[in-house]
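Usage

Read records sequentially. Each one opens with the input sequence:
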Amino acid sequence: MRYDVVIVGAGFNGLYQLKRLREEGWSVRLVEAGSGLGGVWHHNRYPGARVDCHIPNYEYSMREIWEDWNWKERFPGREELVAYFDHVDAVWDLSPDIDLETRITTAHFDDDNHEWHLTSDDGRRYDCRWLIMCTGFGSAPYVPDLPGLDAFEGECHHTARWPLEGLDLDGKRVGIVGTGASGVQVAQEAAGIASHLTIFQRTPNMALPMEQRQLTPEQQADDKRSYEEVFRVRNAPPGSFHDMIRDNRSALDVSDEERLAVYEDRWAKGGFHFWVGGFKDTLADETANRLAYDFWRDKTRARIADESLHESLAPTEPPYPFGTKRPSLEQNFYDIFGRDDVSLIDLKRDPLVTITPTGIQTEAGHVELDVLVLATGFDANTGGFTRMDFRGTGGLWIGDAWADGVDTHIGMAAPGFPNMIMLYGPQSAASFCNGPVCAEIQGEWTVDLLEHVRANGLTRFDTQHAAAEQWSEVLANWAEMTLFGKADSWYMGANIPGKRRQLLNLPSSDAYRAALADCAEAGYSGFVFA
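and closes with the structure output:
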């Protein structure tokens, strides 16, 4: 099957790109490995899966989508998000141009004909001039090399590969390895259902209160009167939220009373307000960051009934600068440790020795388990590419091209991989820019680029190595002038053994918007056309 454009991935980016390119008259096909739409929201079906960005920030800005859609919660859960994507499909009539259950296993660039040849796991072939990769930053689950893992005889699942039919935790002895977002969410659901829940913590999560609430159709009808202005603000600088405005003062230039008032205000609003809407130097100055951490620590300790857990869950000294690992949002995570049927094992103090057929052996003893949950995250940003047979000019595999680190041009294109655009991928603002916001910003930029090549009769573009190296230097400077470089996070690729430690997402959606605009206005500087 031959198309002008093939899109891989049916999340926010892929669906928006399909809609826009069809409108511009391109022959386009979208292929998706899952059996439904929504990307991570289709695949992540573990108990408690929920978005960490509140409505209406986390939705498309087009009137035809939101005018007849009402959310039930401020932070929608997975089932509601899947229903939302079905609604998007119904409004935009996308399904006729989508192949579901089609996992692309090979993508090879044909140097002679300037086109991509893709094959799926069921043997189908797709040929296209332009390839748009929308695999996102969280499509490749990571399971660390845990000794004895294969020996475990109970149910064992990574949160991103949860059984389609679900998994009954009622009355089971459940263990969760990892306390990132999925670990926190599963723990909140399992506590009180499992006969006993044991959480194996590798690094404390500086989770923030979600402040969840129900939404009514009447309330949303009232809110929608201002939605056009809401989305105008959301999609323009500063930031990618319509209601999270950063305090542009230094935390060090205000009185203790003023600082505390700002902290309390942001904390009470819940969600990412305390992270995104704090003082301008929270993520750039260690002293300012420590003030925010101490506030978080004291607020959190007040929630933990068992004081013996304070140093594990909310240590006196920060294990990493506050906010340099993505904070999870919690509803009752710190409260569950007051239950007799919930235990915490701090693996820094009591290391994991091996997984046994019936549980986990630590240095202090053995924990019997019926269910083992691996909340161990993703090979973020790059894993969606390197787990494929993805080859550019001269047959170069992308894993080899990125073996010593990732170099891209403004997070959109990679040298040696012509006619390929990446959306919400490595070295973009992904993870610091809402998915639907980035889908619209990057999506419009991509449409303009393809209109440029079509208008000028071009059949090939690539990006210059020098331009990609320069962009990597831009991100390295951001890591240096902020505190992000001081944390061993997935932002830095530090969770994957052997992966080069480098900042893989630009922590400023405003700076990213500006870089995209500058590139386009300069005639797509850094690109080479033929």
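Summary fields computed downstream for this record:
- The domain at 2-37+94-140+379-529 is CATH 3.50.50.60 (FAD/NAD(P)-binding domain).
- The chain has two domains: 2-37+94-140+379-529, 173-374.
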